[in-house]
Structure formats: structure tokens, C-alpha cells
Design goal:
single chain, 835 residues, alpha+beta, Jelly Rolls, Phosphorylase Kinase, domain 1, 6-stranded mixed β-sheet, 15 helices, 24% strand
């Protein structure tokens, strides 16, 4: 948390003293059925100046289950409220469990102040906090030990109880000063919002949990809990303004605000809508600039932005039109509040989901005027809530799911998974030790194969490592491995590794289709002890997966370490490799939209590999057989056996050339220097494979057609690429969408890595291609959809243009790939060290 935010929170807490607590005002008819307030460690109830009373742990003893806990206090602590003068400390895992009067949304507010008392220096505490399903805090440490910290979450409870589990890290403790568990209205979060890019509806918001990262009252004062309809706090926006001179605060009397039927004070109090930030000097000049707010956020998460508007500056209807931008993209174009609300001074709000792929440089919000000759050139924003959305492993802090044992992402349709892959990720998150790997010893078959090279070096080759019982039980429980499968279980699941169950073959060995438990299908990868190369790849895959968790990467479910076996169990991808749906298997052809969505998913997975960890990872074997599809055709990148950590402090990794014919970066081959751009080149081949539905290398074709990258680029340079695309796409593909797609592929295939885009750039352009296709399809009648792709170089119909931010009113477009060609002439290789 930034120092400025910490200062604001401190002021906020002091503000509790100012007036009686009226969190649920007369303007709201909501009364929370659950209202648990606990002063952890307090010997007597804490009556706060705002009127609320926090019960002591003794009064709330039925909530707490702990083997060993300690009450500490510091009456001399310089804190604004008494709840921060006491704390409860846990040396072992401890759980608060609350019986809920009703299911649904609940606020969880955790109060922290790291006091230092005899025998207990909480400034050094490191711990995690979880519910039954969600990770709220992982390896949490207070960044500023002299400040109080409030963490606020909004969870949707589906069970009759809610548990808060405090888990101290190794050689540390957990602590908590105060806890709030309070009901929230069922309709506070609607199920549907808007997606930032491509612009479309986003359904399923009620399936996530949220952490409030920022809540701002634009142009107005601090709103404390006692003055909010739901006990929330709203801080002034000035610390986040990029240029304070460009914004001006404006306000009206609260009596002027008239709530419409669909917006109530539960959404935001009248104090939010009665003030706003508008463009400075808007009354005396013709402004042509944007008001900008910048926020430092965790860029690995998606965010829900709730933007509050209320036209309190216009004198007449239909006079104010303005644009809203998020991270350089148009979020709302030509916002006309009076038309939407049918009146002035009437609240309106908009929920917008921002994908993590658009968050590489944090979060920027801008408002600016439209280019037009009518109306007042001005723009306003009244309030803003920035809420972090739970990720694919149901976490709000890092890529680690609850207990590291399941993905937890039932709302996204993935198979319950991982745990094993979380082992080393947990160690990295702790920062408690340096992870070092054993190289595989010559007598590896005589040992438990996982133990010999998966454990940190400090454990040594002890009896702990070679004992079957210890490996299953002690290792699993102490280091947080995922599910342990016995060899017998996997033999039964695969019909004793029946050849008919083989669904994949590689240098490591075979992959089998297995059925476990109540019929859940899994993919079982069994290492081949006779393959030196295969075992190396096997080890590499585990090392890489231990660092990774992402919706678009294939997930581990568990492992088997018995009788010298090396077996990993993955989620089963029922629709198999992407290649099978493009050619060679006689499967129903994929539509252009489906292909774009699959490419976008794969690009997101690769983008995460390159940027989602501290060091970054290069896949090194990107191809359509390593892009797998689940039952919903969601793409997931697989097979990390050739992967390498990205270089730190230099531009490349010098390494022997490995990869697959047809996909290999020619610069990597020439110089034996591997970079992230090598993956980008391979992905460019994938894009042309998707467009043309043919293999990357086909020796049976005439010489000039053998290599797909060369062949497709020849037609691209001629402007006749439509002549060699998949015939199934004829008449259905939007010419502009195909053009943008082909441009992205062309840039990926640039001969030199420095000229290639990043995966983030590629992702942006693919999403743009999808938006073009969707806009085209939506605007066409059934008769129009038979239009031939032969119009590949005509413009999109004037009736259905794809609008972009106006050049002089909005920020520059984000990293669009330019039109300059970059052809990669692929050499014919006589030898290749790899597969």
C-alpha cells in the first residue's frame, strides 16, 4: 500500500471521532442481518466515538478456534482508535468462524497495527488470511509499521458459515487487531457490466469476490463510515490527480440530488453525487485536454471499476457530452447523462471490467470533451470505486489458491486442480529461503524421483526423502503439495496404463486419459525412465509449473511418487490440441470468431509467462499441438518441458537450439540466443496456421510451399492472402478483421527479435481483430453474411464503423502493431538439437 494511501487511511480513522455513527442513514432502508464486530485481544468492549461497539475475544470466544494464541496490548500506542491498541497473536493456524443469518454479500474488514511489545515484535510478522474458498492475503507484511491498515473485501457467502483462517508463515506469527463481518445488499453488485476491450457486455460479476483497492469522492471531502449508507469510506481524489491544475472541484447542495428508481443511496451516498471533478478553466476557454487520475495497482489481476456520474454543472438538458478513457482506450464515448437519466442532477453509474492484459503500467482514468460544435466543452466524474477481482485460483493476493490444493475456479469451469504446482510458488512468495534444485543423480531410479530433485537443497538426501510414507504424508503436509495419488489409483484410473488410453506421446513418455473419483477425467503424464531427454524435460516442466497459475495455462491436479515412478496428473482438456480442429482430424471447422478467441486465450497465457513472474519464462515450444482446448474451447498453453527462465540483466539466454521445425525463430537458430521474442515468432507461425489451416511444415508440397511462414508471407506481400486462407472461412470472415490479424502475424515473423512486438502488443491486436469481427457480424443481416472474403481490402461498411478515441481529445492508442512488413526468411535446417 502506498504511503499516500496510508496517510489517507490514518486521517480517515481519526475522522471517526467527528460525529455519531450513522452508517445506515434514513435515506436507506437496509439493515445488516449480520454485524460481527470483534476487538481482537481486547479485555473489555471497545465503544468507538462513532457509536459502534467492538466485542472482546472473550465475549466472542465461540467464534475462535486456536491451539495457541496470545493477547498483546500497548496502551501507549499512538493510534486513532482503541481497537488498534490490542491484538491477538497466533503462532499456529487459527480460525474465526461466523454463523451467518443470511447468505449473500458480506463486507470483511480486517484492521491491522503492528505494535512492538515484549517478546512479540509484530513488525516482523508474515502470514496469510483465507476463507474456505478465497485467499485474502498471502505472505502479508505491513509495509509501514507506524500506520494502521484497513483491508476491505466484498465476498458472496454461499454457505451458512464464514471462516477466516490466519496462517503464520514459517518462523513467524499471524495477528489481527479487529474484525468486521457485516451484511451487504444483494443487489450491490449486479451480474452484468461492460468489458473495456473489446467493448461488449461482461456477464458473471456475481461469481467473483472483490477487494476494494480505492474508493474516491471526486471533487469532494472525505466521507467517513458514519456518513455512508453502507459504512464505507470515500477519500478525496486530489492525491491521484496527474495534474491538479487541470481539474476543478464543483459541488451543489445535497437537496439538489434526486435518485432515480434504479440507483439508490446504497450504491453511493448523496455526498458523492453532490460533488464532482470537472475540467479546469472550462468556463473561459475551449479546453482540449483530459483530466487524468493515476493509480498504482497489482497488474496481474482484473478490476471492476464503478464510475459514478451526476450532471451537477449543466444549466439545461443535452448540453454536456464527454468521453471516458481507461488506460488509453475509450471506455465511454459521447456520454450524455441527461439523456440517460432524463433529468439533471440525477445519479448514474457504470461498471466496467478491465482485463489484466491492459494493466501493464498500472491504471489510468481520464475524462475529456468531445470534438463537437454544440454543447459545453467539459467533462465530469463524481466518484470512483476500483475493486480487484478474484483470479482463476480464487485469490485476491497472488496466484496461490486456498491450501494450494484446488484451482477453486468453479465459476470458470476448470477442473479442480493444483497444489503440487503451488509448492515452490509458496516458497517464492515467502521469500524465506533461496530455492535451489538438485540435478538428477545417476541412481535416480533407486530413489523417490520427485524427492531427489524437487526439494530445496537444504533438506538433503535424508531418510525423510527416501521414505515412501514420509514422501506421501510428511512432504505433502509440510510443504503444501497437492493431492497424492497412489500408483494403484492411477493404474485403476488408466486401466493399468492401457495403450488404448494414450492421448499423447512425447520425449518424457506417454499421456493417458484417466478417470478418478466420481468420474472426473484427468490427463496422466507418466515419465519414461529410459529417456534421458524426457526426464530432463519432465524436471523442467515441474520447475516451471511450480511458479505458474493462470487460467490459460494447463493446471496440475496432483502427483504420484512411488516405486521410482514419475507421474503428474493434469486437468483433462476434452477438446484436445488446437491443431486437431484446424486440419487432419475431420472435426467440425471452427468459426473465425472461435479461432480468434482461442488465439487470444493462448496469447494471454504466453503474455503471463513473459510478464507474470519476477523473472519471466520463455516457453520455447509454442505450436498448435501445445495449445489445448477444454470443454468450452477455452485455450490453455501446455508442455513446459523446453521452457527457460528469461534472462535477468541481459537481453537473451545463450543455449542450445531446441524447438519444433517450422516454428523455430531463425535468429535464435543463427545466434543460439533465446529471448521472449522467440516465442513471439513461433506464435506468428501459429497465427498463419490458424488462418490457412495447414501444417507449419509440409514436405509433401512443392518446395515453395513447404514452409508455411514463407509461403503465407509471399501471399501477404502480394495482397492476395485471401486466396490461401481456410476455405471454411470464405464468406464469413470480416475483411478488416483478417487484415488486422494478418498484420499481427507478419510483425511476429520479423527476421530480428527487436522488430517483433511483445505478446502484450499481439494480444491487443488480436482483441481488436475480434472486436472488428463482432461489430461486423452484429451489423449484418443474414443475407449480408454471405459476402465473399474477396473484398479483403475494402473498408468496413460505413453503417457499422468501429469507433476509436478522437486523436486530439483522447490518449494515444495502446501499442497497435504498425503496417510495416517484417518478413522472416526461414532457413532449411539439416540438423536440429531438439524435437
Amino acid at each position: 500500500m502506498s504511503s499516500s494511501l496510508m496517510a489517507i487511511l490514518l486521517v480517515l480513522v481519526f475522522a471517526f471521532f467527528s460525529c455519531p455513527f450513522t452508517a445506515f442513514s434514513a435515506s436507506s432502508d437496509f439493515t445488516p442481518k449480520d454485524n460481527f464486530l470483534i476487538d481482537c485481544g481486547g479485555k473489555s468492549s471497545s465503544a468507538l466515538p462513532d457509536g459502534r461497539t467492538f466485542k472482546t475475544d472473550k465475549e466472542s470466544s465461540q467464534f475462535l478456534q486456536a491451539k495457541e494464541d496470545i493477547q498483546v496490548s500497548d496502551e501507549s500506542a499512538n493510534v486513532p482508535l482503541p481497537i488498534y491498541k490490542t491484538a491477538r497473536v497466533f503462532k499456529q493456524e487459527a480460525t474465526y468462524t461466523f454463523d451467518l443469518a443470511e447468505k449473500g454479500w458480506h463486507w470483511i474488514r480486517l484492521h491491522f497495527f503492528a505494535m512492538s511489545v515484549k517478546d512479540h515484535d509484530l513488525t516482523k510478522a508474515s502470514f496469510s488470511v483465507q476463507t474456505e474458498k478465497y485467499v485474502l492475503l498471502h505472505n502479508f507484511k505491513l509495509e509501514n509499521n507506524n500506520k494502521v491498515v484497513l483491508k476491505e473485501y466484498l465476498l458472496s457467502g454461499t454457505d451458512p458459515t464464514l471462516s477466516l483462517k490466519f496462517i503464520p508463515m514459517e518462523n513467524s506469527v499471524a495477528f489481527i487487531n479487529a474484525i468486521e463481518v457485516v451484511s451487504a445488499p444483494d443487489d450491490l453488485i449486479s451480474d452484468e457490466g461492460s468489458n473495456l476491450f473489446p467493448i461488449n457486455n461482461y456477464a458473471g460479476l456475481t461469481k467473483f469476490s472483490y477487494q476494494c483497492v480505492h474508493r474516491l469522492n471526486m471533487g469532494g471531502p472525505l466521507i467517513t463510515q458514519q456518513n455512508d449508507t453502507l459504512g464505507r469510506t470515500w477519500v478525496p481524489d486530489s492525491p491521484y490527480l496527474k495534474d491538479k491544475a487541470l481539474a476543478k472541484s464543483v459541488s451543489v447542495g445535497s437537496d439538489s440530488i434526486k435518485y432515480p428508481e434504479l440507483v439508490t443511496p446504497l450504491i453511493a451516498p448523496v455526498a458523492v453525487y453532490s460533488s464532482a471533478a470537472e475540467m479546469g478553466e472550462s468556463a473561459t476557454t475551449q479546453p482540449n485536454f483530459n483530466v487524468t487520475w493515476n493509480f498504482d495497482v497489482d497488474t496481474s489481476f482484473n478490476y471492476l471499476l464503478r464510475m459514478h456520474f451526476c450532471d451537477i454543472i449543466s444549466k439545461s438538458m443535452d448540453d454536456l457530452y464527454f468521453n471516458v478513457y481507461i488506460n488509453g482506450k475509450t471506455a465511454i464515448s459521447g456520454l450524455d447523462l441527461s439523456t440517460l437519466t432524463k433529468a439533471l442532477a440525477t445519479p448514474y453509474y457504470k461498471d466496467i471490467v478491465v482485463n489484466s492484459s491492459l494493466m501493464s503500467n498500472g491504471l489510468s482514468i481520464q475524462i475529456g470533451p468531445m470534438n463537437q460544435n454544440t454543447g459545453t466543452r467539459n467533462a465530469i466524474l463524481n466518484g470512483l470505486e476500483i475493486m480487484k477481482m478474484s483470479n482463476s485460483v480464487d485469490s485476491l493476493d497472488g496466484e496461490f489458491g486456498v491450501d494450494g490444493s484446488t484451482t477453486g475456479s468453479s465459476h470458470r469451469g476448470t477442473v479442480a486442480a493444483v497444489g503440487f504446482a503451488m509448492m515452490f510458488g509458496a516458497f517464492v512468495g515467502l521469500g524465506a529461503m533461496m530455492i535451489k534444485w538438485h540435478k538428477r543423480p545417476k541412481d535416480w531410479q533407486k530413489r523417490n524421483s520427485f524427492s531427489s530433485w524437487l526439494l530445496p537443497l537444504h533438506t538433503g538426501d535424508t531418510s525423510f526423502m527416501t521414505s515412501k510414507t514420509s514422501t506421501r504424508n510428511g512432504l505433502n503436509s509440510t510443504l503444501g503439495l497437492g493431492r497424492y495419488f497412489s500408483l494403484a489409483e492411477l493404474q485403476e484410473a488408466t486401466n493399468n496404463f492401457d495403450k488404448s488410453a494414450v492421448i499423447g506421446v512425447g520425449g518424457f513418455g506417454n499421456v493417458y486419459l484417466g478417470v478418478i473419483d466420481d468420474g472426473t477425467k484427468v490427463a496422466v503424464k507418466r515419465g519414461n525412465p529410459q529417456s534421458e531427454q524426457g526426464i530432463t524435460e519432465f524436471e523442467t516442466e515441474i520447475q516451471m509449473l511450480s511458479k505458474l497459475r493462470h487460467r490459460h495455462l494447463v493446471s496440475l491436479i496432483g502427483y504420484c511418487d512411488e516405486n521410482s515412478e514419475m507421474i503428474l496428473v493434469y486437468e483433462y482438456m476434452s477438446n484436445g490440441p488446437f491443431r486437431d480442429h484446424l486440419y487432419g482430424k475431420n472435426l467440425p471447422p471452427l468459426s473465425w470468431k472461435q479461432r480468434l478467441e482461442i488465439c487470444i486465450g493462448a496469447a494471454r497465457g504466453l503474455h503471463y509467462l513473459h510478464t507474470g513472474t519476477a523473472q519471466g519464462i520463455i516457453h520455447r515450444d509454442v505450436k498448435t499441438t501445445n495449445i489445448l482446448l477444454d470443454d468450452q474451447f477455452v485455450a490453455k498453453v501446455a508442455d513446459f518441458g523446453l521452457s527457460k527462465d528469461a534472462p535477468m540483466g541481459q537481453g537473451h539466454v545463450s543455449t542450445a537450439v531446441k524447438g519444433s521445425f517450422g516454428y523455430l525463430d531463425p535468429e535464435y537458430f543463427r545466434r543460439q540466443q533465446l529471448t521472449e521474442k522467440s516465442d513471439v515468432y513461433s506464435f506468428g507461425v501459429v497465427l498463419f496456421e490458424v488462418l490457412c489451416a495447414r501444417p507449419a511444415i509440409n514436405p509433401a508440397l512443392p518446395r515453395e510451399q513447404v514452409n508455411l511462414a514463407d509461403w503465407a508471407m509471399q501471399w501477404k506481400r502480394k495482397g492476395l492472402l485471401e486466396k490461401v486462407i481456410d476455405p471454411h472461412l470464405l464468406g464469413t470472415i470480416n475483411p478488416e478483421s483478417m487484415k488486422k490479424f494478418a498484420e499481427a502475424a507478419e510483425k511476429c515473423l520479423a527476421d530480428y527479435g527487436v522488430d517483433r512486438p511483445t505478446m502484450g502488443d499481439v494480444l491487443w491486436n488480436l482483441e481488436y481483430a475480434l472486436q472488428l469481427q463482432e461489430a461486423f457480424t452484429k451489423g449484418k443481416s443474414e443475407d449480408d453474411e454471405s459476402t465473399s472474403v474477396s473484398t479483403a481490402h475494402t473498408s468496413v461498411s460505413d453503417n457499422h464503423p468501429v469507433t476509436q478515441p478522437e486523436e486530439n481529445t483522447g490518449p494515444a492508442q495502446v501499442r497497435a502493431i504498425d503496417d510495416h512488413s517484417g518478413t522472416a526468411m526461414f532457413a532449411q535446417f539439416s540438423e536440429l538439437n531438439g524435437r
